[in-house]
Amino acid sequence: MPTGRIPTAPMRNGDGRLSLRAGNLALELAPRIGGSVTAFTADGTPLLRPTPPQAITQRRVREVAAFPLVPYSNRIARARFAFEGEHRLARNAEPEAHALHGNGWQRTWSVASAAASACTLALDHRPSDADPGSRGEWPFAYRATQRFMLTPAGLTVALSVENTDTRPQPAGLGWHPFFPVRPDTMLAFTARGVWMTDADHLPTAHLPVAPDSALGRGRAVPALALNHCFTGWDGRARIALGAGLPTLLLEAGEPLSMGIVYTPAGQDFFAFEPVSHMPDAANRMATVADHGLRILAPGQALTGEIRLTVCWSRPGERP
């Protein structure tokens, strides 16, 4: 590209990936691999965990930088739930006994629009009797969109799921970004409650989080051992990637009022997932008042927005 020319369209790779740029930030999207983000960098420095090349060629979506959670987040226990009838889902993340993260992350998305620093991906799910597997993915029809907007200051992701079925359906939203971890990576956020989990990562008891919790002041990520859903999240989380690296400000508004924090031991990444509902919400609607799952009438949509602001410290200034 000639020097000084302003690009008007994203760069496209042979495998369908799209590259967006704004200032020193770059975003790489893989519509064919679950509508996922495969890279988000600042001058080549990863702001989300790098995606291994083999994860792209082998479509291993759970190893990418980020992926969408539609039409629900986290687990549905034993891959079954009841809503105007009994529904059995595919166990889509073996060896887990549960259905995990919806089906959007395992589907090919289409490119609805694309420019140099913005792109909209879309997915239409239409279950049919002719394709029993499609009903196992999710028994209701829906349309999901992801709009990515990159500026020199950061990234905004707007998510939507619309009920395109002829009957009501339960639905939720979320985004699953993975962040790189170093010994000095810090995480700080405030929430009012937390769901404790069992060995199957399913919620058991809901406990209050103290207003002066250490998480609110910031904790070193390698010292945490979490796979929990935090409720009453105030919609802000600060992720200090480490010395010499930026701090990321993660923000989300309604309906993304819960945050799932996953810090696997011994790994060089962790996840902070803004979501609209608790794990296994499809089976908790009758017993938990604030489960967070929405019932969408035909034609009704659920929308949410996540912002990642990249904050560089000035010399001598703490992040």
What is the annotated CATH architecture? Distorted Sandwich
Query: Could you give the order of the helices and strands?
Result: EEEEEHEEEEEEEHEEEEEEEHEEEEEEEE
Q: Give the N-terminus to C-terminus distance in angstroms.
A: 36 Å
User: How many individual β-strands?
Assistant: 27
Arrangement of strands in the largest sheet: 11-12-13-14-27-23-22-17-20
Query: Mind describing the biggest β-sheet?
Result: 9 strands, antiparallel
CATH topology: Beta-galactosidase, Chain A, domain 5
Q: Helicity, in percent?
A: under 10%
Overall, the morphology is globular
Structural class: mainly beta
Q: What is the name of the CATH class?
A: Mainly Beta
Strand content: 35-45%
Low-confidence stretches: 1-6, 315-319
